[in-house]
Amino acid sequence: VNTSPSKIRINLEDNVQYVSMRKALKVKRPRFDVSLVYLTRKFMDLVRSAPGGILDLNKVATKLGVRKRRVYDITNVLDGIDLVEKKSKNHIRWIGSDLSNFGAVPQQKKLQEELSDLSAMEDALDELIKDCAQQLFELTDDKENERLAYVTYQDIHSIQAFHEQIVIAVKAPEETRLDVPAPREDSITVHIRSTKGPIDVYLCEVEQGHTGHKRSEGITSSSESRHPERPEEEENPQQSEELLEVSN
Out of the domains of life, which is the source (predicted)? Predict the structure, then answer.
């Protein structure tokens, strides 16, 4: 039989297309309801509701409506990554993390709301700190407020917590250092040092019912203020030191 090459080629191409179409028609996509992903999700639902995380694989296969071999496909994978352990031939136990709150949307929403509230509170605190810093700056550095930076004896006496207490007011320049060593049984010592200028110390013992009266019993003060007229201390005439000792 004589057949031209072009005709043979056309017949071969037709046969290939025919076979490909037949194969395409025979191949069916696996139904989602019997896929391994779907079965695994259903299996995990059973794990969450199982007491102690223990499952009977025979009952699992019945509930899922599949052969036990399909259930073994799931348990073998979970066993390989240490999420389940075999209790017996037909029983497994979940040993992974707690699944009670897994995927709990309400809990996640609650946490997001708490984070939002905390973020708003943080912003409010930042604004408050900024406002306090501005007020402190105006109080300490504003020249117009500087003339009002003082406190009177009556102001101190009006504070209830200071009644029957010995109050020592100290007026000192910037960078003044105050040290309070460990108190002794009969007295408390306070060291105040400054290299920027003199230190003024005022005793104001507030006695309830005795407004305007001050006592200095039991308090000793030694001042070592250095002045220009002292030759041996001309190197730093602004240095000043106060030693206060309060006896019980």
Answer: Eukaryota
